[in-house]
Write a structure and sequence with these properties.
Elements lengths: L15 H20 L3 E2 L5 E3 H4 L4 H6 L3 E3 L10 H8 L6 H11 E5 L4 H10 L8 E10 L11 E10 L5 H17 L3 E7 H10 L6 H9 L1 H15 L4 H11 L5 H11 L4 H19 L6 E3 L13 E7 L6 E8 L13 E7 H10 L13 E3 L4 H16 L4 E3 L6 H10 L4 E4 L2 H5 L2 E6 L5 E5 L3 H10 L1
The protein binds one RNA strand through α3, β6, β10, β11 and α14.
RNA sequence: GUGGGUGUAGUUCAGUAGGUUAGAACGUUGGAUUGUGGUUCCAAAGGUCGCCGGUUCGAAUCCGGUCAUCCACCCCA
C-alpha cells in the first residue's frame, strides 16, 4: 500500500521559484561578507553530542536533535539503567538523560557558533588570527514550530575571532546595514552590552540575578512596566532593588543621552563603566561609518546571556513582526571549554528563513533574477533533433542557457512548456527551416517570429535580447 | 513542556434543524487549433470528507479518542 508522503514537522521543501528567491538572499549576504574580507568555511551537519551539550543552557540541551546510534544500540545500555527502565515506572528526567548518553553520541548542530569554536580549537595551528570567517549552513532545533520558527533553518554567520578591537563590532553593524540596505529591508538595530547589564545588577546589589533581571526587563514591550516589576519581585528581588531599577528601565533619549545618564548611575561599578566605554567606542565608529541612525542603545535586549560577554546585537524588521532576523554579540572565551582560553570573538548571525518571510510579506523580492532557461528548441522528431544539437551547443558556447525538448510531442505541449517556465525564446527548426539552413525564432513575450540562418543564430538572438 | 484554532479534490476553500449521487475556483489532462504558448470556449479525470471508535434507521455534519497542522506562551534566527 502506498504510504502518504510527508516531511517532518517544521521542515520544508523548496520549489524552484522559492530557490531563486532563497539564493537571492544567500547571494546578497555572501557578496557583502566577501567585500569585508570574510572567508567561507563549512562544518558537518552532525557533531559529537558532548560538543553540543551544555553550551546552550538546559533549555538548549532539550532542543538538540540527538541521533540514535547505529546497530544494536540497546545492547550497550548499562545494567542499572536497563533495570530502572524495566521497572516501568514513570521515566524521570534524570533517567532520560542517562539513557540518552548511552544510545546517542551524535547530534545535529544547533547553531554555527559552537561548531565554529570547535573548529578553531582543532585548526588553531593552521589559522592566522584575527580570523574572519563566514558560514552559511542549516541548523536544527527540536522546537515546536510556529510563525517564523522552523525546525530546520539556515543561519548565515559572520565572526571575527582572535581580535578584541571594537572596530569589529562596528564593522558587523556596518555589514548588517549593508546587507539589509541591499535587500531593501528597513530595520532597527538594538545594541546592548553585557557589562552594562552586569554593572546595573552590581549597583543594585543583585549581581547574581543579572539574567533574571534582564530577562524580565526584556519583556517590557510585552507585559508593561507593572508586569516587569511583578516578575522581578517573583524572582526574589527586594523592593529596594526594584525601585533602584526604575530610572534604568525608563532610560530614554538619544543614544548619547542614554549613555550620559548611565554614566551617572554606574559610576561606582568598574564593570559597568567598562561596558559604557565599549558602547561609546562602538557608537563612535558607527558614526564614522554613517550608520548610527539605525542603531538604538537598548538595555532591554537580553539574548544569549549564556556566552556573550560584551556587545549584544539584535536586528528587527521595522515593518514585519517576526522576531529578530539577525543577532549576535561578543564572546570572550567561547573556545575555553574546548581547551583554548582567552580567544575573543564577535559575530552575528542572519536568519535567512525569516528574512525570506519579511521579503515576501513586504513584496520586496526582485522580479526575476534571470537564472532561467532563455531558449527552448522544439523537438520535431529524431532527424530534426539531431540537426538541432549543434545549434544548442553553439548557443550554449555563446553563453545562452538552452534546452532541447526531449520528447517528440505536440507542439502545443512544447510551447506550453516554454510558457510555463517563462522561457522567452523558442527556436523552431522543422523540415522547412532546415532545408533552408535556417530556424524560426519565436519571441514568447511579444508573440512575433523571425527567421535566422543557422550560421547567424548567435548574433540574431543577441540582437533580439538586447532590444 | 503549557494553552487554543483547524483538518473536505493536486491547491485554496464552500457544504448544519444529521437525509439520495459531497460542490466551486484555480491547477492538471483532452478537444476547438494533426507546425504555435500565454486570452477564450467545451469536456474529462481527480475524494476511504485526517484516522479509530461511539450515538443514530441514517454522520463530512453530533460525541469521545488519536494523529497531523497552524497560532500563542517559554525560548529563539
Amino acid at each position: 500500500m502506498a504510504q502518504k508522503p510527508g516531511i517532518p514537522k517544521g521542515t520544508r521543501d523548496f520549489t524552484p521559484a522559492q530557490m531563486i528567491r532563497r539564493n537571492y538572499i544567500f547571494d546578497t549576504i555572501r557578496k557583502v561578507f566577501k567585500t569585508y574580507g570574510y572567508q567561507a568555511i563549512e562544518t558537518p551537519a552532525m557533531e559529537s553530542l558532548h560538543t553540543l551539550l551544555g553550551k546552550y543552557g538546559d533549555e538548549g540541551d532539550k532542543l538538540i536533535f540527538k541521533i540514535l546510534n547505529s546497530g544494536d544500540f540497546a545492547s550497550k545500555i548499562d545494567s542499572s539503567t536497563a533495570s530502572r527502565l524495566s521497572e516501568g515506572s514513570a521515566v524521570p528526567f534524570e533517567l532520560s538523560r542517562a539513557l540518552t548518553s548511552q544510545i546517542s553520541e551524535k547530534a545535529l548542530r544547533y547553531d554555527l557558533t559552537v561548531p565554529f569554536a570547535r573548529y578553531i580549537v582543532q585548526h588553531r595551528h593552521e589559522t592566522t588570527f584575527p580570523f574572519k570567517r563566514y558560514q552559511i549552513q542549516p541548523v536544527w532545533r527540536a522546537d515546536r514550530p510556529q510563525k517564523g520558527r522552523y525546525r530546520e533553518f539556515y543561519q548565515c554567520d559572520v565572526d571575527v575571532i582572535g581580535s578584541k578591537s571594537l572596530l569589529n563590532e562596528a564593522e558587523l553593524l556596518h555589514i548588517i546595514c549593508e546587507v539589509f540596505g541591499r535587500l531593501k529591508i528597513s530595520i532597527r538595530i538594538k545594541l546592548n552590552n553585557r557589562k552594562i547589564l552586569a554593572g546595573i545588577a552590581e549597583i543594585i546589589g543583585q549581581a547574581d540575578k543579572i539574567v533574571d533581571i534582564t530577562v524580565a526587563i526584556d519583556k517590557l514591550d510585552k507585559i508593561g512596566l507593572d508586569g516587569v516589576n511583578k516578575e522581578l519581585a517573583r524572582k526574589g528581588l527586594p523592593q529596594e532593588s526594584i525601585d533602584q531599577l526604575q530610572p534604568i528601565i525608563h532610560l530614554s533619549g538619544t543614544n548619547s543621552e542614554k549613555l550620559k545618564q548611565l554614566k551617572t548611575v554606574l559610576s561606582e561599578s568598574e564593570t559597568g563603566m567598562q561596558g559604557i566605554a565599549e558602547m561609546s567606542s562602538v557608537l563612535d565608529f558607527s558614526k564614522e561609518m554613517d550608520i548610527s541612525e539605525w542603531i538604538d542603545l537598548d538595555l532591554t535586549l537580553a539574548r544569549g546571556l549564556n556566552y556573550y560577554t560584551g556587545a549584544i546585537i539584535e536586528v528587527k524588521s521595522s515593518d514585519i513582526a517576526i522576531g529578530s532576523i539577525c543577532g549576535g554579540g561578543r564572546y570572550d572565551d567561547l573556545t575555553g571549554i574546548f581547551g583554548l582560553p582567552d580567544v575573543s570573538g564577535v559575530g552575528v548571525s542572519f536568519g535567512a528563513d525569516r528574512i525570506y518571510d519579511v521579503l515576501e510579506q513586504t513584496e520586496l523580492f526582485p522580479e526575476d533574477s534571470g537564472s532561467r532557461t532563455q531558449i527552448l528548441i522544439v523537438n520535431f522528431g529524431e532527424d530534426e533533433l539531431k540537426a538541432c544539437i549543434p545549434i544548442a551547443i553553439t548557443l550554449r558556447d555563446a553563453g545562452f542557457s538552452v534546452e532541447l525538448y526531449p520528447d517528440q510531442v505536440k507542439m502545443k505541449k512544447q510551447m506550453s512548456y516554454a510558457n510555463a517556465n517563462s522561457i522567452p525564446y523558442v527556436i523552431l527548426a522543422g523540415q522547412q527551416e532546415l532545408s533552408e539552413n535556417s530556424v524560426t525564432v519565436k519571441d514568447m513575450t511579444e508573440g512575433n517570429q523571425s527567421s535566422s540562418l543557422i550560421t547567424n543564430i548567435v548574433d540574431h538572438l543577441n540582437n533580439l535580447m538586447n532590444d
